[in-house]
Amino acid sequence: MKTILLAGFGAMGQSIFDQLRDDPRIGRWLVLERAERADDARRKLGRHGQVVQSVDGLETRPDFAVECAGHEALGTLVPRLLEQGIDTIVASVGALALPGMVDRLDAACRAGGAQLTLVPGALAGVDALAAARDSGLVSVDYTGRKPPGSWQGTAAASLCDLEHLAEATVFFEGTAREAAATFPQNANVAAMVGLAGMGLDQTRVRLIADPAAGGNTHTISARGAFGRLEVMVEAAAFASNPKTSALAGMSIVRAVRNRLNAIVI
Ligand SMILES: NC(=O)C1=CN([C@@H]2O[C@H](COP(=O)(O)OP(=O)(O)OC[C@H]3O[C@@H](n4cnc5c(N)ncnc54)[C@H](OP(=O)(O)O)[C@@H]3O)[C@@H](O)[C@H]2O)C=CC1
Ligand SMILES: O=C([O-])CC(=O)C(=O)O
Which of 51, 74, 140, 174 is the most interior residue, by most CB within 10 Å? Predict the structure, then answer.
């Protein structure tokens, strides 16, 4: 039976645990949570696991780890996990847009003999984009459209009047690298499109606050030697965090199951 370290026990972390808690192949969860929320996390984990405050000096070595804690946590925790030889699945893909981060993670993987997995998260179509990359891509565009409430508490609030939007408003146009750095809680998907396709600096991103949006909408448009791709997903957000689509949690669950299943899809 596997032991999984789960870094971050917010909207996504709790949903991942809820979906996998009764999987008989998982014996124990080690949940990294801040001291002030440790009691609450302990209560939710019950007999399934324990709360830890650091990824160093763990009494039980996890078989692999999952990060869903944010960019800062990815930078501080994930290299240490990888250096210890612990394979890690990450949600906060946008942190790879920070200067030197890809090289740092790559070095940590090599030092520990570990593998880092970036999940598609709330996106659809990453498989085709990544497969098409080697035959040559001509253009890749990503458009993120969310209701104004999903942009509250982000840099979007200073770029448009989220409280009083009457119509869809494009408040950001730039590269995937710029988007990921400016919107760490909302543009991990933009970074994923960049990393899977033409690169963070060659991928064009538009971000939209739309009072009429029915969910968190992610559209990838790509052209290349492979042909043309247009994929849109309109995802329901977590009630506890409207910035995050529930599909992002499901994407992590899929990655975890793919480590446990004999046949991988
Ligand atoms: N790839 C994708 O499609 C998506 C990726 N994401 C990424 O996933 C992350 C998590 O999303 P979500 O669950 O919705 O966010 P939440 O804010 O709901 O949960 C994150 C949790 O992690 C905790 N945390 C942060 N840093 C640390 C740390 N160093 N040690 C222990 N706990 C920590 C936070 O605590 P505190 O609030 O005190 O900081 C919070 O409880 C996002 O920040 C984003 O980077 C999100 C959506 C989609
Ligand atoms: O969950 C989503 O809709 C996407 C998201 O927030 C992100 O990529 O950071």
Answer: 74
